[in-house]
Amino acid sequence: MGLSGGGTMSTDAPERQSVEQIRDLQLQRLRWSIRHAWENVPHYRHSFADRGVHPDDLRTLEDLARFPFLTKQDFRVNYPFDLFAVPREKVVRIHTSSGTTGKPTVVGYTARDIDTWTTLMGRCIRAAGARTGDIVHIAYDYGLFTGGLGSHWGAERLGCTVIPVSSGRSGWQVELIEDFRPDILMATPSYALNLAEAFTRRGLDAQLSSLRIGIFGAEPWTETTRAALQARLGLEAFDLYGLAEVMGPGVACETAGGPEGLTLWEDHIYPEVIDPHTGRVLSDGEEGELVLTTLTKEALPVIRYRTRDLTRLLPPQRGPMRRIARVFARTDDMLVIHGVNVFPSQLEALIAHTGGLSPHYKLEINRQGPLDELTLHVETLEREYEADAARGRIAAELTRQVKTYVGVSIAVAVHRPGTLERAPGKATRLIERRAAAR
Ligand code: DLL
After folding, report:
1. 121, pLDDT greater than 80
2. How far is the CA of 152 from the centre of ligand 1 (A)?
3. Are 276 and 261 in contact (CB under 8 A)?
């Protein structure tokens, strides 16, 4: 089989297939993908041999569990291009992951890979309710980050009018939204909140803007943030998931009026959820780490990539594809404070419930003796900020809530409105002071 991924199904109408048809297609494509990786990438040849497996060992979809995982570390070792399975001249585009530590992960696409990505992103934007002719304001960063260009091509494929704004300069973005009257906003949820603030700073009511759909992703966010975004921007907010290693945005997305969770495009990507400690494959419905395998990717086939994202698989509903539950955290996001596991999303929900606080927050970790200590930095909303006493009351209330609901003692620092740093793209929450303290 050539560089085709096999299978004859049109990428545009997967909803009409049955679950059995999708499984057949997956097996056929998986066989191709595993052989393609093994034949063309030394890393896979070695890792399969170390594990004692060969592409011929894949007879059923369940056999995939016999194959080794691919990790972020494997990308680092093979930096920049050694995981590519096609000659470099066939690679028409390079992107990177947005990791902040060490060298970024480098990914490549053939023209056909870009076409597949565009198809899947188009499906996601359509699933959120967008239609041909809608105006889409894209405030994901353009450049090596996959968010801007991935969304851009998908929206164009759908026949939308794209405004490729990229991130930053929020005041100017508000002006553009007022003038061009887009229907759809695509941004990280934290940047969308920044935009809502920028409307307020200009004395405008964002609820009255032309926006009716928001397609938000690239970082974990919560139902409380969804409610805040919907209320402030007067739109319906949808979750979009993806990662550079597998493609970029468009791996999975929520559907307007659809079932709970994000539909994962199983005709091109095969999902597993594993126990992150043992590597054992879990049943659908069980929570664990998402592991993804590409079925059709030519330039960079990814076999069993450990995403470090925590979620669970949900059965197909109103269509043949399985869904993932909202990705609430990454395995490496989890903080252990006084022996208690703490996820930023838990704190985010409590901040929203406390009242009087903006949704912006930072987590500062210090080491005092043998234990890590957590300080949660939050800021008040303008109208709530009057006196130190008010801030003291809010700090005490939030400390109590965290103790009650998360079971851990932390410090809370309440800042003045607008003083916590805003990132133009993905929010950076963690202030790491442990290395300095050691
Ligand atoms: O963030 C791709 C993307 C762009 C997705 C725009 C959605 C919208 P990376 O920079 O490689 O790619 O980061 C991928 O971000 O493994 C998750 O940890 C996190 N992430 C992405 N989308 C979501 C989401 C892009 N909807 C990493 N919910 C992933 C939670 C998300 N986490």
Report:
1. yes
2. 16
3. no
DSSP secondary structure letters along 301-319: --SSEEEEEEE-EE---SS
What is the band of 238 on the pLDDT scale with cuts at 50, 70, 90? Answer: very high
**What pLDDT does 101 receive?**
58
Does the C-beta of 147 come closer than 6 Å to ligand 1?
A: yes
Q: Please give the pLDDT value at position 25.
A: 97
Separation of 292 CA from ligand 1 center, angstroms?
14
Residues 96 and 199 in one domain: yes
Question: Residues 311, 359: one domain?
Answer: no
Angle at 226 between CA 220 and CA 232, to 5 degrees: 130
Expressed as residue numbers, the domain containing 388 is 334-437
Say what the pLDDT of residue 403 is.
93
pLDDT reading at 1 higher than 70:
no
Q: In total, how many domains does the chain have?
A: 2
As given in the structure block, the two tokens for residue 149 are: 């260009």
Q: What is the domain-level CATH number for residue 64?
A: 3.40.50.12780
Same domain, yes or no, for 143 and 255? yes
Ligand 1 centroid to residue 377 C-alpha, Å: 24
